[in-house]
Amino acid sequence: MTDPIRWGVLGASDFARRTMAPAIHASAGHVLAALATRSAEKAAPFAALAPGLRVHDGYDAMLADPEIDAVYVPLPHTMHVEWGVKALEAGKHVLVEKPVGMTEAEIAPLIAARDATGLQAAEAYMIVHHPQWQFVRELIDGGALGTLRHVEGVFTYDNASDPANIRNAAATGGGALPDIGVYTYGCTRWATRSEPEAITHADIEWQAGCDVVARVSARFPGFTAHWINSMRLLPEQFMLFHGDAGLIRLTAPFNAAKFGEAVVEWRGRDFVTHRRSWPGVNQYVLQVEAFGAAIRGEAAFPWTLRDAAGTQRVIDMAYAAAGGRPAV
């Protein structure tokens, strides 16, 4: 039997507590072994989930733990590259929360460290592990759309009542595009296997140096795209791929099973709507297990740091088209 992959979590973030730590714990062949936090209160729910959990009082202490094979990094956005590099240099595989960096150029040191160490390093971009997205890619590759002409994407929520949230703080990499633009932009790139030629329109509203509403249009080879991302609108999410001979719609493309059931609907010129759903799928567990397969050399991880850098390039282009980020 293959030894389990022993995970450490670098910081007791709310998302790690609610989502990723349980996913690691539930994944076959993986063990939630350690946590780095100075807060006994924050450590308690992690310890309750994984009896025997070791709690380190600092990030460096976690990385020095010889009984940790892989590290999950859910720190504020501006700290991802720094601690991802340190984890690799400490001999740990590393799964870094999205976005990896705040600009495309910032991601280069992590790619270099990955290449130098020969260890696995990737962005925790969970949606590509969900079978609904793999199915959409198969539909597009198989010609279900005919010629793709337009992509429409929406991902919004409202955290205006939570000003202390790090997503509302420019100093820690806040903003709608770093947090959720990675999904509308990245899934368009991944599903279509295409890169944008230009941003044709960027209308961005700012608050305290953070983009809180972003309406962005892009031109790809042969098709256009329009995306709306916001931290100030009623929660909504969908993706629509519209061709001359068919269309595909996802009704819970990003937070499947939380926002709603994972459903893909598609139809062609016969106007017959087909529907497929995936109840009960945990894309975070699938992500951890895929990362484990990559560590063991059993399969390539489907979302590379180069993929993450490509999405960040689109975000950089959107900011530039809107006149750049305001000075903080």
Largest sheet: 8 strands, mixed
**Number of DSSP helices?**
9
Q: Whole-Å distance between the termini? A: 53 Å
Morphology: globular
- For the largest beta sheet, what order do the strands appear in spatially? 8-9-10-7-11-12-13-14
The assigned CATH architecture of the largest domain is: 2-Layer Sandwich
Query: What is the level 1 CATH name of the largest domain?
Result: Alpha Beta
Q: Considering DSSP H and I runs of 4 or more, what fraction of the residues is helical?
A: 25-40%
Low-confidence runs: none
Tell me the β content: 25-35%
Total separate domains: 2
CATH fold label of the largest domain: Dihydrodipicolinate Reductase, domain 2
| Radius of gyration, whole Å | 20 Å
Average per-residue pLDDT, rounded, comes to: 97
Task: Let me know the number of strands.
Answer: 14
Q: Can you write the helix and strand succession as a string? A: EHEHEHEHEHEHEHEEEEEEEHH
Q: CATH superfamily of the largest domain, called what?
A: Dihydrodipicolinate Reductase, domain 2
Structural class: alpha/beta
